[in-house]
Design a protein that fits this description.
alpha+beta; 9-stranded mixed beta sheet; 5-stranded antiparallel beta sheet; 74 strands
Length: about 1000
Amino acid sequence: MNIRLFLFFLMFTTRLFSQNYTLREAPIRDEYNTYLICSAPFVDNNKFVWYSTNREGDFYRFDGKNKLRFSYYTGKNDHYDSSYISNYSWLQDSENNIWALKQNRVYIIKRKPPGYVVERILLERESIDRTVGIGMDKLKNIWISNGSRYLIRIDGKQQITKVSHPRLKQGKKSIQIFKTLQDGRLLAKSGYDIYFIDENGLNYFGNLQSIDKEMNAEFQFIENGKIFKENDSGVYRYNGKPFRYLYIKELNIQVFNRPYANIAPSYGYSDNKTVMYNDATVFIVNRNDIYINRFNKQKGEITTTDTLSFKTPVAINFSRQNPDFIWISTHDKLYKMLVSPNNFDKILQFKNSQLSTRTMVSDTKKNLYIGTYEGLYVVRNTNKKAEEVFIKNDKKGVFDAMYLEKNDHILWGYDEYGSLKRVDLSTRIKTSFKMPDETGQVTFVKEKGDSELWVGTTHGLYVFNTKTEQFHELKGTNNELKGIQFQHILQARDGRWWLATNKGLFFRDKRGDFLNYSVTNPDFKNKNILTLLEDEKGNLWIGTDGDGVLFLDLKTGHLKNYNVRDGLSNAIICGILESKNAFWFSTYYGLSRLDKKTDTFTVYFKEDGLPDNEFNLRSYYKAEDGVFYFGGLNGVVAFDPEKIQLPKENPYKIFLIEATYFSEKKNKNIKDCLCESESTDVINLPYNRNYFSATFTINELFYQESNTYYYKIEGLTNGWNDAGTSGKIELYSLPPGDYVVQVRGKDFKGTVTVNEKRIYLHVRQIFYKTPLFIGSITVLILFLIIYFFLRKINTQRKVFEREKEIAELKSSALRAQMNPHFLFNILSNLQSVLILKGEMEANKYFGAFSKLLRLTIEMSRQELVALETEIEYIKNYILLNNLQLNETIDYTVEVDSSIKNKAEILLPVMIVQPFVENAIIHGLSSKKDKKLEIRFSVENDYLIISVQDNGIGREASALLKKNSKRVYKSLATEIVNERMKIINDSYKNTMSIEIIDLFESGISLGTKVIIKFKML
């Protein structure tokens, strides 16, 4: 088979032996890019592909959808057309720099934030031929061959050294770097001479022709044991022709004569390249053709199985990490070819139509009958080919929910006209049996017993008697089965029948009653059940409509759910089969394999060889020979599950290709290429330009358009948000704060990338909302509050002191008023003493008066006075008045034992004297029996002063004053009340005065004054 690809080529898939080859064009062309590709593709460590164009110094990196350009020239570039492909040889060094080598120059593409730079080193050359090669030794030196008799070494400081060997100088052949050995040494060849490069530099190994004369100059290196038998030399055959291969023990390498050197002449440059896949397939490139070859290592044979022919010269390359993904470049296009194992056989495939398969059964001869909406087909066990079974009176009829009796002759199934049909396969005649009204569509037919069939429908469960040809509906004890949609019936090994319905899972107990399993196991809450399987251990596997797969341990009632989040391809389960090592689930989108040991899923789609991604309910079957059959919208897929080649683990990563944001440092919007950056540096965004966008890609490049992306923002969003297939995330109007943007991806099979990208963002707050500004304002406000508070306190203190000063002045004024009043009374008494009692009594009176006057003068200067001073003052005052009254006053001044130290107790000055004066003058002066008691005590921190007389009382005194011709106005009481008010205002209600009139049987016994003063 020879396949030629033309310009309109979009996608090509073919199957050769046990391999599938899918070829697609990479979308690198646009209206602005019309340059020719002039290099073989190069795959870097991230699995991205690089290529150069015929525009000098122009390079592109393609990640599956984003094409990034890297150019050495910033102005007008040299532009010429190349007549061949492989003008460049590529290398990725230990610093991830990309080296693109041409004969007389090498370009180095380096990462330099925020993007990349392209540097150039000019090289000398002898122009013996046009071959080029590049490699890196264990010391990180770069070695270059460019068609000269010497090599060029470039060290880490980009110092250039020419390195040659005496044999090279004597010869006329150039030296070419070919391969890197596993131990880090580089292999080079010059004609038949083999050289290697190690830490000591360039070393000559030997001449291949002297080792084996049958080797030709077009030999090529290959890893030991990769294609040929390990450690072996001999002859292999290419399309029947013998070619030599040789094992070199000292280098642990094999060399072989290239077969395509005999097919077409070598053009002297490296457009010929051999790519091996899976030890069984060899791709050989010769000018415009790629030969696909099948290799048999045991027989030593390589056979061309296919040829891909292009209009222009072609070059290929692949990634060591992913050798089943091959890149192909021509002058004008870039292709990608995926090589995958062919695990599946397809049945009922037609060129112009698709056949939807509904059900499958097998007879005792292992012939497989397949029911469809367009007739009945059989796959004969003898030739494994499908052929239509023609029914005489049912041409192209519907065959669904089939059951084949053990005699292999009678086939039961659903007829499209609401009937159950019986087909005699020996006579090819159909007989129909009308179903009861409103039964709906038949979903399954299953043997129940002798002459009885279970018939499940979308509106109930029936038993059909094949002898009486009568239907009997099973409604359940309480009509719990009536009108239910039945999907599947299963008889377990313990004899119990299990039913899958749209109302949950039912089972039949020993009494024959049908019970809903959720009654016995409340944890089972799933309603819409589609299919059932009992595994080898007696556990139940339950396929649901939208909730994935349920595992049910019937002994313990333990449940486990498998869903899309666990790797299942789809949550609607059409069929379940069990193999030795796995469970298989056909779904509405893809086929899923659950490994019994690892409990992990592997999923398969059309890209893996399935005829279609959508399968049908009840369309699955496990043959006696272990072959699985799953039917869908496009025929049947058949495979032996024990021979399935599981895909190699090839986890994909997600990359941040480009970020766009406003840079405060540069004061403009920038595009930052962050592809290889794993930095935790924070990107600062101003509050008024709080926009951020980023472009991501997954290094799964073949089905890139089906990859999906998800992101979440710590501190802003909950859970993962679907970003679609574009890989672009745009964040607008981010509120001020710190954020971590996490991004991950899924490939076209739903496998999550092994890594997540994290971007740290900080959106600045507007200045008046920043903590510094708010803190400053808060401090300022607090300062102002404190200032005004202290100012108010100071003002209040001044007001208080002023008021206190005024009060003291008032008190002093009142005391000053009391002193003249007191002196007036004393002098009046003195006058009486001089006239009535003579000089001796007057002298005595003057002595007491002088003491009292001295105390009065001293006390008038004070607001408060000690209790002992007040008592002394009172005693002197009483003494003077008693002299005037001829010592007729019987008085006592008593200090209670509660008062320990009279000198420490303070009270307002002259506060007691006015009441003593009133008692003597107004109460006792007109009585013969004069008694006056003054008592001082302390109760509850109060000083209590009691002044009690046995005078005539206040009423009699007022009456005498009224009838007296001499009007005498007493100011003492009024002054005391004013002083008390001032004292209470100044000291917060510390003083009270109570005047009590004493009576007995209506007769006045005197007056009692109680003064209470809170001790200071």
